[in-house]
Amino acid sequence: MLSDMTKRFIAPFLFFLSIILLPTILLANEQQDSIYRVRTIVLDAGHGGPIPGARGATSLEKDVALQVVLKLGKAIAQEMPGIKVLYTRTTDVNVELYKRIEFANENRADLFISVHLNSAPAPRGRQNKTVRGTETFVSLFGRLDEQEPSLREKAERENKDILLEENYEENYGGFDPNDPASYILLSLMKSQFRDQSIRLASLIQEQYVKSGREDRGVQELSLAVLARASMPAVLTEIGFISNPNEETYMKSERGQTEIVKNLVDAIKAYKLYMER
User: Which of 21, 86, 187, 212 has its CA 20 to 30 A from that of 78?
Assistant: First the structure.
């Protein structure tokens, strides 16, 4: 039998859990009870405004990501009639991370795709110019300190943006990448979308490979921008801005056209599979 002390702990915890999760669970159940269709896609260009993201020799992550996202949205509209495309930003402004996924949740998006550019740090504050390739992430349900060092460092770099936001503790409902209690809540919210997110991420990586890009795989990462998604959600790194060759490619018209095609083809394949 449970002790009185344990009961006193469990009761408020379950009440808190129900308050936090009920809206998401109801929405998720509503989506599952209906025939699944990809009707609305939210596209997110990483960083923005005073938060530039990774820096290359001649470009910033925030600018290249926005260029790709705007072209991607236009391509989806042209090639996939009936799909509604929404953007978390269309100009050089910073949108707080919690507002990006909140926007997707409020609009009942069927997919959330965040576009970023990678960077490989080297000792003494320099950049590693040899690392290259693409990788796509889905939300991790484990503790940040249980990840391998390279992924932990990446998560810390991406999540540090929340520390620059006003009232970030209130906005993220106590989100702490190092707190196991946070992931008890978040994993319950996200578990039913994990498989779909991994499928989309895998299809994206397959398309990059078809274009001759180096495949760094699909990985799970503790990312604030994905943590509260009520739909399949991925963050895709389209290349390393710290690598001069990849920076040139991602800035070029040819490179952006190819990346957009990769993403559109992956979305088409995902939609076909899910609606079969």
Answer: 212
Residue 7 included in any domain: no
Angle at 93 between CA 90 and CA 98, to 5 degrees: 90
Percent of residues, the chain, with pLDDT higher than 70: 68
In a 3-state reduction of DSSP, which class is residue 175? Answer: coil
The count of structural domains within the chain is: 1
Encoded amino acid at 85, one letter:
V
- Measured CA to CA, the distance from residue 186 to residue 189 in angstroms comes to 5
The one-character DSSP state at 35 is: P
The answer as to whether 19 is a domain residue is: no
**Burial status of residue 248 (CB atoms within 10 A of its CB: 0-12, 13-18, 19 or more):** middle
Task: Provide the pairing of β-strand 233-240 with 134-139.
Answer: antiparallel
Tell me if 115 sits within 8 A of 250, measured CB to CB.
Answer: no
Domain that holds residue 97: 37-274
Single out the residue of 230, 185, 215, 164 nearest to residue 24, CA to CA.
230
Q: What is the pTM of this model?
A: 0.77
Residue 28 lies in a domain: no
**Please, which residues bridge with residue 235 across strands?**
114, 137
Report the DSSP beta bridge partners of residue 220. 138
Provide the CATH number for the domain around residue 187.
3.40.630.40
Asked whether residue 212 is domain-assigned, the answer is yes
